[in-house]
Amino acid sequence: MTARNDINLVLASENPVEWTVSPGVVAYPDALSRMDAHVDAISRGTEPERIWLLEHPPLYTAGTSARDEDLVEPDRFPVFRSGRGGQFTYHGPGQRVAYVMLDLRRRGGDVRAFVAGLERWVIATLGEFGITGERREDRVGVWVRRGQKEDKIAAIGIRVRHWVSFHGISINLNPDLSHFSGIVPCGIREHGVTSLADLGLAADITDLDDALRRQFRLIFGQSV
């Protein structure tokens, strides 16, 4: 299930969580296929939980609540219908995607609490770079105040099957923010998008990955 040249790191614990880092870009259909297979294996108890870090080529994905009118430029990039929650989002180079395949039976079986944990994970990770990320009750994702406005810096969208999560989070490191103009991101018209680079930070993707790994241990534990 692991593509050649992926880097696998296992967090040592009684129930280890495997971290897989894929270099380059991963085609979206390939990612879906690999996630499906691994989620089924986790539910059977034959594979460990996994956090998969990757980038995609430029594309738009539609969640289960996506509205057709929010796809502003349908011919700009490939569009994929996914089974995750949420609406339209963009993925592309310079954006770190973390697919989160965790057994929620080990985490109390509370999906809402799990999503709140993902939000805390993103916010704590951004905090390592001096960025104050915030959640909002009326809209998903993680937001950054910029004077009188707020911009979205991270998206969250999951699906759960057999009590195993998949899909996950994406954090804007240094993507081409103009690519978001082909959709109404997450159906929200009155706010924009930002990235670490847009906020003046020169962090690279390794810095972001290291912060994600540290904060995962603190928020979720190595395995719960």
List the main descriptive attributes of the protein structure presented here:
9-stranded mixed sheet; 224 residues; alpha+beta
Describe the structure.
The strands form two sheets. Strands 1, 2, 3, 7, 8, 9, 10, 11 and 12 form a nine-stranded mixed beta sheet that branches. Helices cover 22% and strands 31% of the residues. It is built from three helices and twelve strands. The chain is globular. It starts with 6 loop residues before the first strand and ends with a helix. Mean pLDDT is 89; it is low at 8-13. The protein is an alpha+beta fold.
Short description:
The chain is an alpha+beta fold. 22% of the residues lie in helices and 31% in strands. Strands 1, 2, 3, 7, 8, 9, 10, 11 and 12 form a nine-stranded mixed beta sheet that branches. Strands 5-4-6 form a three-stranded mixed beta sheet, with no helix packed on it.
Indicate the low-confidence ranges by residue numbers: 8-13
Helix % is 10-25%
Biggest β-sheet strands, sense, barrel: 9 strands, mixed
Distance linking N and C termini: 24 Å
How are helices and strands ordered from N to C? EEHEEEEEHEEEEEH
User: Using only CA atoms, what is the Rg?
Assistant: 16 Å
Set down the secondary structure blueprint.
Layout: E1 7-11, E2 17-21, H1 28-44, E3 49-54, E4 59-62, E5 79-81, E6 88-91, E7 95-101, H2 111-127, E8 134-136, E9 139-146, E10 149-161, E11 164-172, E12 192-193, H3 205-220
